[in-house]
Design a protein that fits this description.
With 105 residues, this protein is an alpha+beta fold. Helices cover 45% and strands 19% of the residues. A 4-stranded antiparallel beta sheet has the order 1-2-4-3. The chain starts with a helix and ends with a helix.
Length: 105
């Protein structure tokens, strides 16, 4: 718990440019941008989600905490993460702004 507090304080001081560089590292290791597919819009809201999405795949819970803090540092709102592939997590970020930002990488 003490280490978590220390790392949160340290990450809170990171400038947006260095935070984005660190996020770019995580995105390059396992990330993608999902675009809406107009051909599927007629399927209904529960079967097909229509928005823009960035997915960042991280290896462990520590990386997940770091990614969430970095996203907040650059002004993006992280959505609810979910577990995938055993100990790995996916951190989604929704919205066109996030998609445009990460698509440039």
């Amino acid at each position: 718990m003490e280490n978590d507090r220390r790392s949160k304080k340290e990450l809170a001081r990171i400038r947006a440019t260095s935070a984005f560089r660190r996020l770019a590292h995580f995105f390059a290791r396992g990330g993608c941008v999902r675009e809406p597919r107009p051909a599927r819009f007629g399927e209904g809201s529960q079967r097909y989600k229509k928005g823009w999405e960035v997915r960042i795949l991280v290896d462990n819970h520590g990386d997940l905490v770091e990614v969430r803090l970095l996203l907040t540092a650059i002004g993006l709102t992280p959505a609810r993460p979910y577990r995938k592939y055993g100990e790995r997590f996916v951190q989604p970020v929704y919205g066109l702004t996030a998609a445009e930002l990460f698509a440039k990488l």
